[in-house]
Design goal:
Shape: extended
Order of helices and strands: HHEEHEEEEEEE
Structural class: alpha+beta
Number of strands: 9
Number of helices: 3
Length: about 220
């Protein structure tokens, strides 16, 4: 009991001493508060700088990649035997065998184009590119694409669906791969397309570099 009383008196003395220090040394209290404020300020400045200069974005590697070509021959009223696409809508009064003026604005074309492994139109096709493109801008050549690759070869069986804007005057541009079937079931990614060749308004060839980033 004596020891407990002794320890209790010591504890009370320690608390009283601490209280006296705080009462008689207000300057030290201010310094402690200022240091704490400086530390907090530095911390928030560090967060601000970190968010302003983020680290490099993670570079994702495709889980599957390959290149294909498709060839589009527009019907012009004289090439029915070879044509693979046709104008199905045009501005009022326009001719459905000639693309409209003013960057072809208002034309809608549907196509059923052959797909090849190389850039030769006469190579054996490995499938068909089927869909449409719409010229949707007045002041420059650009179109909106929506189409499917229906592949039927020893190497690939299934479909791949694409959608996106196509700023035609840009050398290479990206469109979305939004899904697929068969060998490409639930595949998603990016296709980088480039106009590989063209002959007036009648023929063009697209180089399509397909990169899948989600493969099931």
């Amino acid at each position: 009991m004596k020891h407990r009383a002794k320890y209790s008196r010591l504890a009370q003395s320690s608390k009283s001493f601490s209280l006296l220090l705080l009462l008689h040394f207000p300057q030290e209290q201010k310094q402690i508060k200022m240091r704490a404020s400086c530390i907090l300020l530095c911390f928030f400045m560090f967060l601000a700088v970190s968010s302003a200069y983020p680290g490099k974005k993670k570079q994702y590697k495709p889980c599957k990649e390959f290149v294909l070509y498709f060839h589009d021959i527009l019907y012009n009223g004289q090439n029915a035997a070879n044509a693979t696409s046709a104008i199905v809508a045009a501005p009022e009064g326009a001719n459905l065998t000639i693309l409209a003026g003013q960057n072809h604005f208002g034309n809608i074309i549907v196509f059923d184009d052959p797909i090849t492994l190389d850039n030769n139109l006469h190579s054996p096709p490995v499938g068909r590119a089927q869909g449409m493109y719409i010229y949707d801008t007045k002041n420059t050549f650009t179109s909106w694409l929506s189409f499917t690759f229906a592949l039927n070869s020893t190497e690939h069986q299934g479909t791949i669906s694409f959608i996106g804007a196509d700023p035609i005057l840009v050398k290479s541009r990206d469109i979305s791969v939004v899904g697929g079937t068969g060998d490409f079931f639930m595949h998603r990614g990016i296709a980088t397309i480039a106009t590989d060749a063209f002959e007036g308004d009648v023929y063009f060839r697209l180089h399509v570099d397909i990169k899948f980033y989600e493969c099931w």
